[in-house]
Every structure is written in C-alpha cells, then in structure tokens.
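Record type: monomer structure entry
Structure origin: computed from sequence
Chain ID: A
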Amino acid sequence: MSGGLVPAACAVEINDRLRIEDAHRGKGLGLEFLRHIERTRVLLLMVDSGAAEPATELAMIERELREHSPALLDKPRVVILTKADILPPEAHAAAPAKAGLPDARLISAHSGLGVPELLEWLWRTVDTMDRDAAAAEDPHS
C-alpha cells in the first residue's frame, strides 16, 4: 500500500469522554476525531447496550458522520452493542433486536464476550480489502 500507514479501523462510540453530537460543527473533540476517522478503512460504530435508546444513539453517530463527509458511510462498518456484561446472560441473544439494532454484534470488553468473533470479522474485512486493492493494481493476478 502506498502513502504510508492507514489505520485499519476506528471505533466510534458515544460516552462521557467523547460526545460526537455536533462534532461536524467543531464541538468537543469533534473535527479532530472526524478527521481521524477519514483515514480509517473500517468503522466500528459502538453503542452502549444499557443506553435508553441505542438505535437513536446510532442514528446520531451516522448523522454526524454524514454531515462531516457522506463518504464515511460508504466505508465498511459494523454496529456493536457494548457492555454485554451488564446484561443477564439469558438476555444476550435478544439484546440486538430489543435495542432496535438487529444486525448489531454484542460484546463485552470486560468479559471478552464476542471480542474474538469481532476481531475475526475485522481481520477478514481488512484482508479482503487488501486483496481487492492488490487485484485492482495488478490486472494479471
């Protein structure tokens, strides 16, 4: 790959440390963070599974990304519900649908639940992107 190192992935999460709402207008760490996201190849859109309205939080993240640069929403991405460890184990299977995010992956950084599968998806996605880019550069491959 030419042009130096490009971060493979960037996690976009709503939390008390970083508020992304109105980031495209320069609020908070906004523009600096959004410029970092532009350099990434894959987006991990993370929403707290304990949020009152996870789907609304995801919509706000996507709106900010679109307001900054519509091309950001063309990047491969995965929606992740975090903090699975705060949910009872019997609620894990239904958590994404209950949150209004049926395609989301449920993970817990604390317990490791879902993290190996997420990393595997990420590696496969980046590898596929690398292979596609190499094939595009070398028409004989």
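Annotation 1: Strands lie at 9-13, 42-48, 77-82, 105-106.
Annotation 2: Confidence is low (pLDDT under 50) at residues 1-7, 13-19.
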